[in-house]
Design brief:
Structural class of chain A: mainly beta
Family (chain B): Belongs to the somatotropin/prolactin family.
Oligomer: heterodimer
GO cellular component, one term (chain B): extracellular space
Number of helices of chain A: 0
Organism (chain B): Anolis carolinensis (Green anole)
Keywords (chain B): Disulfide bond, Hormone, Secreted
Distance between the termini of chain B: 26 Å
Largest sheet of chain B: none
Shape of chain B: elongated
Helix content of chain A: under 10%
Main location (chain B): secreted
Helix content of chain B: 55-70%
Number of strands of chain B: 0
């Protein structure tokens, strides 16, 4: 007994550094039987279809494309085929350009330091780019966005800081404990997740007002 | 006094970043408003008028190409967009209920693309003067399709043009950032 498999669905594709990428799919119903999946793709300008080069690196129900198999600015066409002993079912066709699925890892090492200078007192936020990604050659360029709030507060203040990896904040409340995070994106791609939270407790006698 | 090559590249990268930002926005806005669910992406394959220009498609290829060749490629792609952007700015007005934001972006992209082309010609003039003569570019045959009576065909023509614009503006932006790091910062940005 049993049924043909349900239709699989492509749920997401992501490139963390515009050099490789991964796609994930969600299986349909299994029809009460063990199923196999084949991930087919072809690239813009090519007729023949290829099979996924690597089903394992990125975990179950995924296809990983290493540098060798990754082209930017060319549309990939994907189809996933589910099979069991009763029959097979193919997914819809999906179209992806790697240029449009770049989502970097979060920035690293966010630190908050209170600084007292001749010209004023401020909170200095510093962070570093994600480890994954070639910024040095200019292949990947990142914009950053900060968010900060009093730890007990509800509303985040968001600040877009462009390419910089440091930011001075002047308008804060003495004696308050603050929490901050930072994220990044490549050009006009997808924002990364927020970095882990960083905290600082300001002294009561600091003068951080504008 | 003469503007430094570094400043020329700074201006060019700011412009290319801005143009790609506008190109991504106008594509998304047009797609959301006019072409959702029409499956145009499947037809917009292998259909950019600039696909005859062989351009690097990954980091390795982009890093192996000589900077003069990459500069000339950028020039060729930019020149290939002069004509279509001119007509996009005028034809987009005929789209039914085209919002001002799409109209404004089409006009702004055309203007900024011209500025970037002028800037690039100055850069190439500095880096490799003898190359300025050869005006290689890809001709755009798409004006009649933007004026078709059949709405579906006409919308696809706009979709395809904006899809290619988003792609090519991203290429130009990426190549310029690479060139800037290579030529100005010794590949150590």
């Amino acid at each position: 007994s049993g049924q043909p498999p349900g239709k699989p669905e492509l749920i997401r594709c992501r490139s963390p550094e515009k050099e490789t990428f991964t796609c994930w799919w969600k299986p349909g119903s299994d029809g009460g039987l063990p199923n196999n999946y084949i991930f087919f793709y072809n690239k813009e300008g090519e007729d023949e279809f290829h099979e996924c080069p690597d089903y394992t690196t990125a975990g179950p129900n995924s296809c990983y494309f290493s540098k060798k198999h990754t082209s930017i600015w060319r549309t990939y066409n994907f189809t996933i085929k589910a099979m069991n002993e009763i029959g097979s079912t193919a997914s819809d066709s999906y179209y992806v350009d790697v240029a449009n699925i770049v989502q970097p890892d979060p920035p690293e090492n966010l630190s908050l330091e209170f600084e007292k200078k001749v010209y004023g007192e401020y909170l200095l936020l510093k962070w570093s780019p994600p480890l994954l990604g070639d910024l040095r050659s200019g292949w990947l360029t990142l914009d950053y966005e900060l968010r900060i709030k009093p730890e007990e507060g509800q509303v985040w203040e968001k600040i877009f800081v462009g390419h910089r990896t440091t930011y001075k904040m002047y308008s804060l409340n003495p004696g308050e404990r603050y929490v901050a995070q930072v994220r990044c994106r490549s050009d006009h791609g997808l924002w990364s997740d927020w970095s882990p939270k960083s905290y600082i407790k300001l002294q009561k006698d600091v003068r951080v007002k504008d | 006094c003469q503007v430094s090559l570094g400043d020329l590249f700074d201006r060019a990268v700011k412009l290319s970043h801005y143009i790609h930002s506008l190109s991504a926005e106008i594509f998304n806005e047009f797609d959301e408003r006019y072409t959702q669910g029409r499956g145009f992406i499947a037809k917009a394959v292998n259909s950019c008028h600039t696909s005859s220009l062989t351009t690097p498609e990954d980091k390795e290829q982009a890093q192996q190409i000589h900077h003069e060749d990459l500069l000339n490629l950028v020039l060729s792609v930019l020149r290939s967009w002069n004509d279509p952007l001119l007509h996009l700015a005028s034809e987009v007005r005929r789209i039914k209920e085209a919002p001002d934001t799409i109209l404004w972006k089409a006009v702004e992209i055309e203007a900024q693309n011209k500025r970037l082309l002028e800037g690039m010609e100055r850069i190439v003039g500095r880096v490799h003067p003898s190359d300025l003569g050869n005006e290689v570019y890809s001709r755009w045959p798409g004006l009649p399709s933007l004026q078709l009576a059949d709405e579906d065909s006409r919308l696809f023509a706009f979709y395809n043009l904006l899809h290619c614009l988003r792609r090519d503006s991203n290429k130009i932006d990426n190549y310029l950032k690479l060139l800037k790091c290579r030529l100005i910062h010794d590949s150590n940005c």
